[in-house]
Amino acid sequence: MHNVTANGASIPALGFGTFRMSGPDVLRMVPEVLKLGLRHVDTAQIYGNESEVGEAIKASGLPRGEVFLTTKVWVSNYKADDFRRSVDESLAKLRTDYVDLLLLHWPNEAVPLAEQIESLNAVQAAGKTRHIGVSNFNRKLLDESVRLSRAPIVTNQIEYHPYLDQSAMLEAARRHGQSITAYYAMADGKVFKDPVLTDIAARLGKSAAQVVLRWLVQQEGVVALSKTVGERRAAENLAIFDFALSEADMAAIHGLARPDGRIVSPDGLAPVWD
């Protein structure tokens, strides 16, 4: 596996996502993926499983410094005092003194962006996170975050899969020296039966899921999150670094994007998308 470098951060190109994952599944799967060689785990305050993630990493026996750990501050905690308190609570649950990457989970106009970014900078300066970033930001918010922040923003975690064209966000991230962290890579399972993807997969002796993950990490500056509650699928998801997609295959997958491809756009949270 390679690492993606972004504004001083070195991020394993494939991470294990824990969105909507129960505590027991986290306790079972995180040690398993770490045993398989994965070194990047992603959680969030709102997922309700930070405690289990912390316990699972501890149970793996790996030194803390070998696991790239990301969590996200929820929108109700963006006021400065709440922000600091919530980060301390997250660290206690995660059984660590620091995370490797701390993100703003969604935009929240109720708190000035300058205050949100200042809080990110403050917890980084206090040593509670090595790097900072954002999630679900559009280009306008991303540009403003960069302008406001003293410390570099290293990633924007966004929905990204073959049916959603994110070329504008990729261009913005690259312009700022950032990575894109892709979630919802499987597009709610749509990729598994897509004939373009299954044809490429059959030709390469891989699965459609492996092809999509490979398509993501083969793009400059893109980190992919995978999620599964099955041991066999976890091993399969990791087996994407022993092959490459041709330019024609990459283009064919990019060609699957469509105007209605976005899946995640919750009312009251989502910005005006690019």
UniProtKB/TrEMBL annotation:
Name this polypeptide is given: 2,5-didehydrogluconate reductase
Residue ranges of every copy of the NADP-dependent oxidoreductase domain listed in the record: 14-256
Similarity field: Belongs to the aldo/keto reductase family.
The keyword DNA damage belongs to this UniProt entry's keyword annotation: no
Catalytic-site annotation from UniProt: 47
Catalysed reactions listed for this entry: hydroxyacetone + NADP(+) = methylglyoxal + NADPH + H(+)
Pfam entry (one): Aldo_ket_red
Keyword Ribonucleoprotein attached: no
GO terms assigned for molecular function: methylglyoxal reductase (NADPH) (acetol producing) activity
Residues bound to substrate: 105
Gene3D superfamilies registered for this protein in UniProt: NADP-dependent oxidoreductase domain
Alphabetical UniProt keywords: NADP, Oxidoreductase, Plasmid
InterPro entries: AKR, Aldo/ket_reductase_CS, NAD(P)_OxRdtase_dom_sf, NADP_OxRdtase_dom
GO biological process, one term: methylglyoxal catabolic process
Lowers pKa of active site Tyr, annotated site positions: 72
Spans through the membrane: none
